[in-house]
């Protein structure tokens, strides 16, 4: 087996623990989409085209709330803005690939493939491009089928799960479990606290605008806290 | 009231294209000017700025109870947060949360 092959499977293996996150999340999305009123084609289209759980759930929640369409899209896209950072961070490692390869890699740029890949690249920065690509797509091959498959499963069996199972709460639980590891520094913590406080204080705002305001304010507080800490260290 | 079909499709397509463009932004446009430092600094806090705000109403005012705060959910959320922060283990946090959710509901009847 060539090195490239081996690296593909290594990426596959390294990303595979996240199947345990992606599968239930996908399942819940399938169920939630059905409950929001999406038919099977719409559910699968969303899960395949967007391939970003947090924003998909956000969109569902806002659609449920009869938020104006433009705002649904805008707020859901804001949730995905972190992927711009992923894109920038991957440039030094995958930037030399052909345009078509980069277009494909962009499709598979999800939290898990990014996080696992970037960690690997930082450990072994001098590997050739084709190995880095193999690793990246290996990771994608590991978790994406489960995302699609479990979304489908959720959409199909959704009606069968009794409401008393409180499965609706699995969504916030998954979100919180994703956020908790992010609270690793004071600026991150400050941003999160502002985010929560403003969400509580501004819930009265129409069109779910409180979400945009809370997010922007939280980002500014995070950035300022970071600057303040840097100033203190200097 | 079921949402409008066209609304759903517009959201799907809009979100799909928009998200792809975000993902493609840097990786696709090599040689573009690097982002200014102040913008990069803010982008670092997008996830931690958006997600907690998103989660808060789902926890405090769950739709399933008609907006009334409810102990099993509040406790479960707290447990997920503590376990997640303490152990940095996503799966353990989810499991602990679901256990708390059902456990408290069982105890409270």
Please report the number of helical segments of chain B: 5
Kindly, what is the distance between the CA atoms of the first and last residues of chain A, rounded to a whole number of angstroms? 51 Å
Task: Please give the alpha-carbon distance between the first and last residues of chain B.
Answer: 31 Å
Elements of chain B, N to C (H/E): HHHHH
Number of strands of chain A: 0
Binned, the helix content of chain B reads over 70%
What gyration radius of chain A follows from the Cα positions, in whole Å? 19 Å
Poorly predicted runs of 5 or more residues of chain B: none
Oligomer: heterodimer
Q: Helix amount of chain A, in percent?
A: over 70%
The overall pLDDT of chain B, averaged over residues, is: 85
Number of strands of chain B: 0
Net shape of chain B: extended
Strand content of chain B: under 5%
Q: Provide mean pLDDT of chain A, rounded.
A: 88
Question: Residue ranges of chain A: pLDDT <50 for 5 or more in a row?
Answer: none
Helix/strand order of chain A? HHHHHHHHHHHH
The largest inter-chain interface, given as chain pair and residues per side, is: A-B, 93 and 70 residues
In DSSP terms (H or I, runs of 4 or more residues), the helix count of chain A works out at 12
Describe the protein in words:
The complex is a heterodimer of chains A (234) and B (109). Chain A has 234 residues and is mainly α. In chain A, 76% of the residues lie in helices and 0% in strands. Chain A has twelve helices and no strands. Chain A is globular, with a radius of gyration of 19 Å. Chain A starts with a helix and ends with a helix. Chain B has five helices and no strands. In chain B, helix 4 (71-87) packs antiparallel against helix 5.
Condensed summary:
By secondary structure, chain A is mostly helical. In chain A, 76% of the residues lie in helices and 0% in strands.
């Amino acid at each position: 087996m060539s090195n490239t092959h081996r690296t593909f499977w290594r990426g596959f293996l390294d990303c595979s623990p996240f199947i345990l996150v992606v599968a239930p999340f996908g399942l819940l999305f399938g169920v939630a989409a059905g409950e929001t009123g999406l038919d099977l084609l719409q559910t699968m289209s969303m899960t395949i085209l967007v391939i970003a759980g947090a924003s998909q759930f956000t969109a569902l929640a806002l659609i449920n709330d009869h938020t104006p369409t433009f705002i649904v899209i805008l707020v859901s896209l804001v949730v995905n803005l972190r992927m711009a950072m992923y894109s920038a961070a991957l440039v030094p490692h995958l930037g030399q690939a052909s345009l078509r390869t980069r277009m494909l890699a962009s499709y598979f740029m999800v939290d898990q493939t990014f996080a696992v890949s970037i960690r690997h690249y930082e450990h072994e920065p001098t590997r050739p491009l084709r190995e880095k690509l193999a690793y990246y797509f290996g990771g994608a091959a590991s978790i994406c089928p489960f995302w699609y498959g479990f979304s489908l499963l959720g959409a199909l069996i959704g009606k069968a799960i009794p409401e008393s199972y409180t499965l609706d709460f699995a969504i916030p639980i998954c979100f919180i479990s994703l956020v908790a590891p992010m609270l690793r520094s004071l600026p991150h913590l400050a941003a999160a606290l502002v985010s929560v406080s403003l969400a509580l204080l501004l819930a009265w705002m129409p069109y779910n605008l409180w979400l945009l305001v809370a997010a922007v304010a939280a980002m500014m507080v995070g950035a300022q806290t970071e600057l303040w800490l840097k100033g203190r260290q200097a | 009231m079921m949402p409008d079909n066209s609304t759903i499709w517009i959201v799907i397509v809009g979100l799909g294209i928009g998200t792809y463009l975000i993902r493609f932004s840097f990786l696709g446009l090599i040689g573009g000017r690097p982002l200014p430092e102040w913008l990069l600094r803010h982008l670092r806090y997008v996830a931690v700025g958006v997600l907690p705000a998103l989660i808060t109403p789902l926890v405090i005012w769950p739709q399933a109870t008609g907006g009334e705060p409810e102990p099993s959910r509040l406790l479960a959320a707290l447990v997920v947060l503590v376990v997640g922060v303490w152990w940095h283990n996503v799966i353990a946090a989810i499991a602990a949360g679901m256990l708390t959710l059902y456990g408290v509901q069982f105890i409270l009847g």
